[in-house]
Amino acid sequence: MSPKMLSLTKQLSIMGVFTALVCIATISFTVYVPSTKGFFNIGETMVYTAALLFGPLVGAFAGGVGSMFADVFLGYYYYAPATLIIKALEGLIVGFLSQKGQAFVKAYTKREWRIFTIEMGVLIGMLVSLIGFLYYSGIVELYSGIVSAENPASTVFIPVEFWFGVGALAVLLVAVLAFVSEAEFGFAIISCIFGGLWMVFGYFIYEQLFLGVFALAEVPINIGQMTI
Predict the structure, then answer these.
(1) CB within 10 Å: which end of the chain, N or C, has fewer?
(2) What is the model's pTM?
(3) From first to last of its 228 residues, what are the pLDDT tens digits of the chain?
């Protein structure tokens, strides 16, 4: 087998693995808040991981196809067409920006990137605390896998203090990573933020134009999913 064919086979294998991981991560754990209709999952973690590690092509395919399958399996089939496009572009944006950032980071000193990374960490921590406080506190329903009679939701109470603690932990974690990692880490955060903002905007447009729901109410929910 030629080196070119081996490379293609390897890339297709990586795409397949991360498509499955995105789907599993999305289905494996979801949180729903009945009082605010807030809902999020952890599928974004695998979309970003695929894009940052293997570039825009893998990120786009795994993010779009894996997330689309998850919507179908969870019963949100009416979101599946939009999810395919929105999550694919999200993975593409994160992968593309992270690759282009390799040259960009060289224009600044390591100290400047550390300061910037910490600032991004503070922003993320504030978003997590604020959105968690407003939309994900109180009685929530936790789902692990596809909900059915054999796999019902678990109802728990999450105090507002929990989200302040999570926000503080996020700031601390990013600050530590800013000192122990390379400057590219700061640009990776930027890449994920831009990809996440596209995801928020994409679902807002789809819900507003095609589903006829009050899409503005979902914006903070999607921002919460992006940051968490």
Answers:
(1) N
(2) 0.75
(3) 555 665 778 888 999 999 999 999 988 877 765 654 556 778 889 999 999 999 999 999 999 999 999 989 888 888 889 999 999 999 999 999 888 876 666 666 778 778 888 888 888 888 888 877 776 777 777 766 666 545 556 777 888 888 899 889 888 888 887 787 776 777 788 788 888 888 878 887 887 776 655 444 555 555 555 555
Q: Are 146 and 27 in contact (CB under 8 A)?
A: yes
Domains of the chain from N-terminus onward: 3-227 (1.10.1760.20)
| Placement of tokens 């603690």 in the chain | 165
DSSP code per residue over the chain: --HHHHHHHHHHHHHHHHHHHHHHHHHH-EEEETTTTEEEESHHHHHHHHHHHHHHHHHHHHHHHHHHHHHHHHT-GGGHHHHHHHHHHHHHHHHHHHHHHHHHGGGS-HHHHHHHHHHHHHHHHHHHHHHHHHHS-EEEEEE-SS--SSSPPEEEEE-HHHHHHHHHHHHHHHHHHHHHS-THHHHHHHHHHHHHHHHHHHHHHHIIIII-S-GGGGHHHHHHHHH-
